[in-house]
Amino acid sequence: MTNSCFVALTGLWTVLSLGSLAAEEAWITLPGGPGIGQGKHIVLISGDEEYRSEEALPQLAKILSKQHGFQCTVLFAIDPATGEINPTIRENIPGTEALKTADLMVMFTRFRDLPDAQMEPIAKYLESGKPVVGLRTATHAFNNPKSPSFAKYHWQSGTAGYEQGFGRQVLGETWINHHGQHGKQSTRGIVAPGQEAHPILRGIAPGTIWGPTDVYGVRLPLPGDSQPLVLGQVLVGMKPDDAAVEGPQNEPMMPIAWTKTYAGAGDKTGRVFTTTMGAATDLTSEGTRRLIVNGCFWALGLENHIPEKTSVEIVGPFEPSPFKFGGHLPGKKPADYLKD
Question: May I ask the CATH class of domain 22-177+257-338?
Answer without folding.
Answer: alpha beta
